[in-house]
Amino acid sequence: MEEYYLEKPCNTDEEAVRLLTDKWRLFGGRMNPGLLRQFTGNYTEWMEYIDDQSAGRNIGDEVQQTLFFLKNSNGTILGAVSLRHFLNHTNIVDGGHIGYGICPEYRGNGYGSLILSLALKKLKEMGITKVLVTCDSDNIPSQRVILHHNGVLENQTLDEDGIEINRYWIDNIAGGL
Hints:
The chain is α+β, with helices and mostly antiparallel strands. It is built from 5 helices and 7 strands; from the N terminus they run βαααβββαβαββ. The strands form 2 sheets. The protein has a 4-stranded antiparallel sheet, with helices on both faces.
């Protein structure tokens, strides 16, 4: 039986990250989470950046966040999720506690729901029991995933680019499901 897990990026992921980000950019659309967009070719520098983000070092007024890859039992990266350790004035409006994305080639297979479920468990371990998750208002697949995890729509707002965003809260006391 196939097993799935979240794992922080490591040095052995370099080639997979190169392929993943190249394919995603060719596919088009916004690569999520945003920490993936920061990879521009120098893996060592990117790993330092990811480590700093997770540890809260050298990040200025950004929110501390930890990146995980969703992998299967073969170690294939299927998607990525960024867990924000707290909310600030920016991500309370747009971004929330969780930023996630499934690699375009693996979409439509239930991995969105899986990555959100695993992310909620990690946040619960961090003591975060009320979770904000946002998505573009026209992103129907993401809305379905969030609603499946008992997300409650609080409102809609505009992000910094003028894109309408849905803001959902998930009660994470029971793990979201």
